[in-house]
Please model this.
Amino acid sequence: MLGDIVPLANNLWLVIGDLSVDVPNVLVYRAGERLYLMDSGAGSALRTSITQVLREAGPVQSFTLLNSHGHPDHIGNNDLIHVADARETHHYLSEAGLALLDPSSYFATQFSQLSTSYDPVT
Model:
């Protein structure tokens, strides 16, 4: 169910998205003093769950946000980089992901579809 937190292994969490409304799964991984977030999803359910996992993971030296690409459903909660209890933060978007940035009409369609589940501008 959207926002469910599934521990996959020691220090590895999956936050369940909902592909029927174009919200991806999210991964959080802690390796020693480094914490990684792969995509941030979108909407309040994922935001709440990611915040819970960040608290559970605890403070770290370094937090890295990795975005597979720049579509709104993958970057909607990117501001959580400021919530992580980390001395330093990093944010990366794959070069291949840059090619997936579509024209304005794509984003208008995305925001329209996403708005059936949550308000994508909040």
Notes: The two ends are 22 Å apart (CA to CA). The helical segments are 44-57, 72-75, 95-98, 104-114. The CA atoms of residues 33 and 115 lie 37 Å apart. The first helix runs from residue 44 to 57.
